[in-house]
Amino acid sequence: AQPPPPTRGHWPGERGDTAQEECVRYISRASGSPRLEPGAMAAQLDLSQAALRGLSDKLYEKRKTAALEVENVARAILRAGDRAKLDALVSTLANDFVAMPMPNHRKGGLIGLAAVTVALAGTADSKLDDIVPPVLKCFADADQRVRYYACEALYNIAKAARVAFVRHFPDAFDALCKLSADNDPNVQNAAHLLDRLVKDIVTESVEAFDVAKFASMLRERIGVLNPYVRQFLVGWITALDSVPEIDMLTHLPDILDGLLNMLSDPNREIRQQADGALGDFLAEIRGEGVRAHRGADLGALAGILVGRCGGSGDEFTRVTCINWLREFVSLAGDTPRLVPHFASIIGAVLPCMSRTEAKVRETAARASEELLASTTAAAKACARGIGEIESAGGLDLPGILAALKKHAGDGAKGPTRLEALRWYAALCDGSPETVRRLSLDASGVGALDELLASLGHDSDEVVTRAMRVLGSLGAGEEADFDVVVRRVVTVFASDGGDLLERRGSTVVRTLCAELGAERTYCKIASIVREGGLVSGDEGRELDFAAAMVEAMNLILLTAPECAGMRASLSGLTLSKASTSSRGTDHENATGARLFLALYPCWCHSAVSTVALCLLSRAYAHAAHVARSMGDAESEVTVRALVQIDQLVHLIESPIFANLRLRLLEPNRHPDLMRGLHALLMLLPQSDAFRTLHARLGAVPTLALSRLDVNDGEDSGTGTKSGGTGGCLDGGEVDLEALSATYAEVRGRHVRAAEERRVRTMRGRG
Fold it and tell me: How buried is 298 (Cβ within 10 angstroms: 0-12 exposed, 13-18 middle, 19+ buried)?
């Protein structure tokens, strides 16, 4: 039979106990306790032989009666001041009873030691070192009744000693922690009652309590998985945190990880208790401005939370961690020492935006928004060199860019990658010079490779955001502009043209919008003309150059971003009716410079060259190029015919409305007629052929009849440029040199095509 649990805070054996009879009923009637013979021990301790025998009796009532005599004897010894006899009494109870193998002896020794402590009361401090350890040793006894009575004895000892007992708290806490998981419910109930008493004593004796040592003990045990131990530990954390004189926030880094682990405990009650404790701590941190969290090491806490954001598989735990980090970010203004931790917080929050749990994604999105606002504000403050942020070490912008770099590359999921790119754009706006310098530094945290890799992403939004960032990075000095544009072109050349075909239009148009269309086009044309983008094979190099020119030509003729370039090339920048001759000359010079910058590169595509000349109203040269396409079989390819087809449809668009109107006066623009007829003759019988044929058939017959067969004819090189109203009307452009350039470039293409044909034939042979 088991002894009954304590009721209403009273223990069996304590003064005034009303449960004595119940205890007697529950104690086993079979006792193997040996009886002590009368002897010197009784005489030495002033105890009767009956008391010595009663302490080892099987009945609780007799042990209690004997304990009362022990208490009286201890009081008498205390009054007499005989410390030696008191030492002997305690030693006898500890060694001849508590240390004995017989359970009833141990029970008697426990109640006897408690009786001595009650007798000593306020003077018990000197003997607690001899009394408490034997009692605590019985907490691990194999007999559950001994463990129960050990709790009873320590309860009475602690109640009598009060403040003096705090010195033995570490050992008592360790024993109670183990006993909280006891498999006997009565022992658990006894341990809980003792635990409440010890909490009361500690909260009353704050000055004598070593909080640091207690925190160390918590840290050692906080990772235990046993649910009873977890409840025990959370109870102590909550109890001590409620004491105003005890600053548990200082020691929160020691226990935070363990509390977060408890949020995923299968037991709902434990989850609620842990969440409640964490909520109390968070309320203290954000409660009263700087004073509320002055004792908390928010940097250490942030490090723990960052690790748990990515390392926890539990949704509730992850949401809790993100919410804590949000609160920390909101405190950055009052706590500048948090600002250097923004980099690690970003690295933890961004991946959570791609989690499958909706609650985690929503919380992470809010945290990212608040963190971005604080980061940009801190970046501006650091740039100005003012405020507490600067004095606290400032913003770790390289660390932030390193975190963003990790999540802007191919390894990041879509939402995370988008958010990282949004961060990049915002930081470029907030601290452009610093971000540009760090991002373009290939040896440091530069993210240019990651941004360029984003150009091939399936998501249009990812590509657009990456290009906006690249545009911001290239908007600085000329060297920055050159690096960005050159790397973009290199990426186009490196994957065999697939990226150029899929994303070329978006990339080039965004660069034009961010960096200026004319500046961008001239730089790309220069890079393509220089070559060296595809190593080891001139044929592949020429193929890429042709593809790049064809893509840029289509953008030039259609994109709104290039409207200014089209106006400059066509000479329509200013209204002819209101433009002075000096203004016209200036605009023509601008258009001519642009034409000269583009032309050598455009020579890699014959059809694109024709389109550029038609746009610039260099009709004679356009006709010459169109007719020269028939000089080599390799020039009239399916690809070239597709390009002509596309150009024919563009001629029918508003962009070339002025060109179509010039067909009303073929005698003034005979080279335009020859060029368009040359294109018509190159086309097979197709929709494009019929469209262009119908357009040319609409030319007034009377005007055609007045067209002399030699009108506008030149030496065959298309060197005539004046009289069309285009950008080349000034006569400053050496079209003969341009024709030589065209012939040289097209000659390289013809030779490369012939070499490819020969290799193919040999391969078949």
Answer: buried
Tell which residue, 96, 161, 166, 168, has the closest CA to residue 139.
Answer: 168
Q: How far apart are the first and last CA of the chain?
A: 102
Both tokens of residue 463?
């590509």
pLDDT tens string 682-699: 999 999 999 999 999 888
Task: Retrieve residue 72's tokens.
Answer: 């009286």
Cα gap 326→319, rounded to integer Å: 10
Q: Please name the residue ranges forming H helices in 81-127.
A: 83-93, 103-120
Q: Give the residue from 722, 718, 740 showing the smallest Cα distance to 674.
A: 718
Handedness of CA 69, 70, 74, 80 (dihedral sign): positive
Instruction: Return the ∠ at Cα 749 (arms to 743 and 752), rounded to 5°.
Output: 140
Alpha-carbon distance of 552 to 304, in angstroms, equals 51
Distance CA 117, CA 133 (A): 13
Question: Alpha-carbon distance 630 to 172, whole Å?
Answer: 102
Please write the tens of the pLDDT for every residue from 166-200.
999 999 999 999 999 999 999 999 999 999 999 99
SS3 string of 538-594? HHHHHHHHHHHHHHHHHHHHHCHHHHHHHHHHHCCCCCCCCCCHHHHHHHHHHHHHH
Half-sphere exposure of 419 (CA within 13 A, CB side): 28
CB-CB neighbours of 654 under 10 Å: 8
DSSP structural state of residue 181? T
CA distance 571 to 439: 40
Contact status, residue 606 vs residue 746, Cβ threshold 8 Å: yes
